Structures
1.
Amino acid sequence: MIVFREPGDVPADFGRSVVVIGKFDGVHSGHRAVIDRARVTATDAGARVVAVTFDRNPLSLLRPELCPDPLSSVDQKLALLADAGVDATLVLRFDEGLAGLEPRAFVEHVLVEALGVVTVMVGDDFRFGRGGAGDPTLLTALGAEFGFEVDVVGDVQGGGRRVSSTWVRDLLSAGDVEGAARLLGRPHAVQGEVVHGLKRGRELGFPTANLSADAEGFIPTDGVYAGWLVDQGSSAGGASDAASAVTRYPAAISVGTNPTFDDVHSRQVEAYVLDETGLDLYGHRVQIQFTHRIRGMVAFEGIDRLVDQIADDVTRVRAALRA
């Protein structure tokens, strides 16, 4: 997938585009339904599918007090859009300049001049331009003037509720990673670099890979989870990392502050890779995929109780991943 960081990056001979516009936070099943529709339209029109999105949630600038934590980082979002079949993505920097752009100027300079749009697909709650003055009705009128179609796509429903990033976030905040996976169409994941921790897991017989504090993606509520660790290779890069980049390991995942010891002051994500001894992941980029919640996070009275519980957790993780 081609990534453009501003309209001027799009080459003059890029060709015709079917454009989908949105935040695409998490790229859930609702987003992918729109992308699938765009792919069909693009095939009929001999055009490319282009996603137009932003480098941050617009609320972070417009109403920061209402801005939620993102489900996915920009890099995660780009990978997910590529997996969904998008040909190119234009990531717009959402700053004061873009926020103040009039709707007509946005359409003319971004959609028409840069992307050669033939069809735009948006949701019925889509707003754009200064003060949110643009809506699907105005976009349709501008489409008639500039020669492109507007397809207003209805919501994807699940269980009587609109599939949305907010719903996914609510489920993850409750630890319901299985419910979140049903909306996403895949396990929810966070990613980051493996860093040195207190090495307490190793002392207990269950060495863990600890993610750095700046891990990307929404972290589910505290607890123990079953899932997968995907090794994406050394952060330093290089051809020698090609094999490790596709290695996936079953894992027991802990999220929280290790309340038994009460000496970890910020939430951390750590994963114990099952049945692997001597695995050195320090300095590697890894993705942690959450598939099942095993239990909540509690403090135990003594090391022996904790070790027994971890052993039971690992047994339950094995069973969950086999199911």
Note: Residues 66 and 94 are 16 Å apart (CA to CA).
2.
Amino acid sequence: MHTIDIVSDVSCPWCIIGYKSLQSAIKELGKDSDIQLSWKPFELNPQMPVEGQDRAEHIKQKYGLSPEQTKANRQNLIDRGLEVGYEFSFPDAGRVYNTFNAHRLLHWAKGYAQQTELKLRLFDLYFQQGGNPSDEDALLTCVEEIGLPVPEAREILQSNRYASEVRADEELSQRQGISAVPAFIFDNKYMVSGGEAKEVFVSVLKELEKELGE
């Protein structure tokens, strides 16, 4: 059994691109039953206020990109998404939000062995529906759709439950030198950063097999 920790944020487009590439690599090698995935929290915008910020304004402020550069980058993401089987929908009036509560729910969902299901649903909420991953109702809808108990999720969102655990995981990633996502950590030995192609993940998985004599 191999473990893969994926450090990511639900508002990171390269995270879903990288995951889809990893998924293809696992399928190609027939390793579905030999992989244990775990999603680790990373906040791209930890200081983002509750109301969020206009995406275009945020990108200009944070990265200094012009509208033309932003448009080109967006198209690149759309194209890469289609290559790995994921369809992005970027509304012109999109916003960037705080994602801390989403990470608290993801930590909780791991106990139900449905962390990946919730993570993928949250990606869809943000990237396909233009939804707000910090909104309680939106988060509870995602929870309900994958069959997790809504009352328990609501209780978590209305408290500070799992806040310290999420902070601890974020601090661990910082100590590991992770400053950008996605970061895929294989068996605590190898790390792949970014939304790499399937072949990169195939290579790492084969190396792990070789080391274990599989």
Note: Residues 67-84 form the longest helix (18 residues).
